[in-house]
């Protein structure tokens, strides 16, 4: 029979140490779990709070250009244009010039045959001769009766009557002379002449055509235009009228002369705004000594106008339009939103030039999120704080030519 193994009795002190170690391990495990969960909860709260704040991109306003191009349509007109109407009725006897013919002041353009006027002049001359004969007789009679009065052969009343008759006959003679002179002047209108040197730009008549006198009844027979200079008329929008002053230079192009540019100078404006179009009519002068430009033609007019040095450029996507006007959202030093009312100086499409309401140091929110409000805390996307969005927009606007 084998001997039983020896079992060492466990002391109470060892049991107490083992229990303490087990308890310490349990406390460590539980405490570590609680601490981990607390740390994770704190991180979650921080992440949630951070992501609850809208993320915005900001850009710095950029100084605007010192000038901008204003392109407008215009029309060319002759410096002087004279429609020639007939002053006497009749038939066209002949015409001496055709369209495109240069003429000098006083040069004969055409001649009218007016037999009725010729007869009226002949009758008026005959009436004048009759009035003169009656005047001579009345003079002789008045002088004779004046001599008889000295001998008391006639009464003073009778002498006065003869003198009055002579005065009346004189007045009749003067009236007849005036009628003859009037008809002689009308006879001169049978010849139509150029009022000034220029070019015949229209002829609307031919030999044998019935001519009616006056501009109310008849058509213009000829048009003489002075085209050594041309007047250029442009309707300038009200926003730019103050910058288009007398003496302002403009460049002009016409479709029939591609590649050529002509210079025009502002001479005057209508000093009023058309309520229908909201524009002011401006007149420019264009030199045309070479005769390259045609009156009545369409022209494209290009102004280089100065801009206010205070103008700042922002992306068009930064603007906010509501019932109270136009605003932009800016981010303050505490990363809170503030709204600023602004005034638009010029719309370039992708870029808007602001004349007032912004400072160059403002941080402008590009494409503000929906629902963003005043005082909201935001986070700034660092990738766009350097104004990249505005730079891209300005580059696109430059590529498009910067036309307003």
Q: What is the average per-residue confidence, as pLDDT, rounded to a whole number? A: 83
- N→C terminal distance: 119 Å
Structural shape? rod-shaped
**From the structure provided, what is the oligomeric state, counting identical versus distinct chains?**
single chain
Assign a percent range to the helix content: 25-40%
Supply the number of helical segments.
Answer: 4
Beta fraction: 25-35%
Largest sheet report: 6 strands, antiparallel, barrel
Strand order of the largest sheet: 3-10-13-12-11-14
Poorly predicted ranges (pLDDT <50, ≥5 residues)? 383-390, 399-404
Class by SSE composition = alpha+beta
Number of strands: 22
* Strand and helix order: HEEEEEEHHEEEEEEEEEEEEEEEEH
The radius of gyration is 50 Å
Structure characterization notes:
The protein is built from four helices and 22 strands. With 404 residues, the protein is of the alpha+beta class. Strands 3-10-13-12-11-14 form a six-stranded antiparallel β-barrel. A hairpin with a 2-residue loop joins strand 16 and strand 17. Helix 2 packs antiparallel against helix 3. The C terminus is likely disordered.
Quick gist of this model?
The chain is an alpha+beta fold and 404 residues long.
Keywords summarizing the entry:
six-stranded antiparallel beta barrel, 404 residues, 4 helices, four-stranded antiparallel beta sheet, alpha+beta
Describe the secondary-structure layout:
Elements lengths: L11 H41 L2 E5 L2 E2 L3 E18 L5 E6 L6 E2 L4 E6 L1 H36 L5 H33 L2 E3 L4 E6 L6 E2 L10 E16 L11 E5 L8 E8 L9 E9 L10 E9 L5 E4 L3 E4 L2 E7 L5 E5 L1 E5 L3 E6 L7 E3 L12 E2 L7 H12 L5
Parallel strand pairs: 1-22
Antiparallel strand pairs: 1-21, 2-15, 3-10, 3-14, 4-6, 4-9, 5-8, 6-7, 8-10, 10-13, 11-12, 11-14, 12-13, 15-20, 16-17, 17-18, 19-20
Helix pairs in contact: 2-3
């Amino acid at each position: 029979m084998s001997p039983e193994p020896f079992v060492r009795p466990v002391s109470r002190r060892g049991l107490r140490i083992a229990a303490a170690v087990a308890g310490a391990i349990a406390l460590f495990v539980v405490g570590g779990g609680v601490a981990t969960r607390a740390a994770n909860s704190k991180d979650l709260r921080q992440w949630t709070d951070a992501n609850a704040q809208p993320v915005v991109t900001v850009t710095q306003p950029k100084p605007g250009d010192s000038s901008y191009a204003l392109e407008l349509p215009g029309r060319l007109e002759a410096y002087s244009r004279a429609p020639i109407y007939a002053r006497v009725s009749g038939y066209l006897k002949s015409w001496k010039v055709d369209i495109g013919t240069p003429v000098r002041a006083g040069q004969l353009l055409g001649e009218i045959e007016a037999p009725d006027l010729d007869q009226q002049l002949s009758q008026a001359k005959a009436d004048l001769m009759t009035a003169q004969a009656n005047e001579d007789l009345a003079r002789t009679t008045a002088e004779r009766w004046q001599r008889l009065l000295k001998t008391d052969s006639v009464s003073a009343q009778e002498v006065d009557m003869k003198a009055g008759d002579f005065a009346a006959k004189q007045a009749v003679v003067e009236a007849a002379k005036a009628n003859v002179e009037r008809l002689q002047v009308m006879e001169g209108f049978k010849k139509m002449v150029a009022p000034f040197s220029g070019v015949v730009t229209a002829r609307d008549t031919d030999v044998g055509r019935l001519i009616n006198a006056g501009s109310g009844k008849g058509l213009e027979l000829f048009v003489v235009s002075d085209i050594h200079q041309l007047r250029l008329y442009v309707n300038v929008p009200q926003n730019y009228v103050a910058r288009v002053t007398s003496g302002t230079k403009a460049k002009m192009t016409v479709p029939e002369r591609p590649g050529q540019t002509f210079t025009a100078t502002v001479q005057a404006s209508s000093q009023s705004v058309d309520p229908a179009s909201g524009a002011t009519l401006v007149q420019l002068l264009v030199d045309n000594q070479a005769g390259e430009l045609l009156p009545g033609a369409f022209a494209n007019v290009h102004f280089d106008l100065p801009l206010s040095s205070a103008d700042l450029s922002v992306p068009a996507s930064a603007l906010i339009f509501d019932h109270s006007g136009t605003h932009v959202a800016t981010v303050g030093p505490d990363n809170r939103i503030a709204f600023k009312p602004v005034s638009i100086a010029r719309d370039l499409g992708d870029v808007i030039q602001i004349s007032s309401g912004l400072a160059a140091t403002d941080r402008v929110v590009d494409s503000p999120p929906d629902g963003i409000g005043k005082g909201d805390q935001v986070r700034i996307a660092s990738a766009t704080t350097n104004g990249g969005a505005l730079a891209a927009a300005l580059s696109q606007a430059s590529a498009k030519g910067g036309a307003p």
